[in-house]
Amino acid sequence: MNRINGVIAGLSFLGLLSASGYAEMDKLPMGGYTVLAALLLGVMLISVRSAVKHYYEGD
Fold first, then answer.
1. Please, which residues have CB within 8 angstroms of residue 8's CB and are 6 or more apart in sequence?
2. 3 state DSSP class of 21
3. Which domain of life is it from (predicted)?
4. Residue 42: is its pLDDT beyond 70?
5. Is residue 44 a contact partner of residue 13, using CB atoms and an 8 Å limit?
6. CA–CA dist 31, 59 (Å, integer)
7. Model-level pTM?
8. b/e 10-49 (16+ beta carbons within 10 angstroms → b)
């Protein structure tokens, strides 16, 4: 489970980088970018938190 959380966090980070690139090239409207960035950051933070919790508590 810890590995899955790490993969999800990594993919969320790559998705955030991609969305940033599309927003800079004006291929993604700023409103859409804001919503997508908030969603990806939320997923990334939850995954990192779960991975760290699993690492330290062994759940």
1. 43, 44, 47
2. helix
3. Bacteria
4. yes
5. yes
6. 38
7. 0.78
8. eebbebbeebeeebeeeebeeeebeebbeebeebbeebbe
d(CA 59, CA 5): 13
Residue 16, both tokens: 């955030």
State how far the Cα of 34 lies from the Cα of 41, in Å rounded to an integer: 10
From residue 49, alpha-carbon distances to 8, 27, 39, 52, 56 in Å are 12, 32, 15, 5, 11
- Determine the pLDDT at residue 43: 93
Q: What tokens were used for 7? A: 């993969």
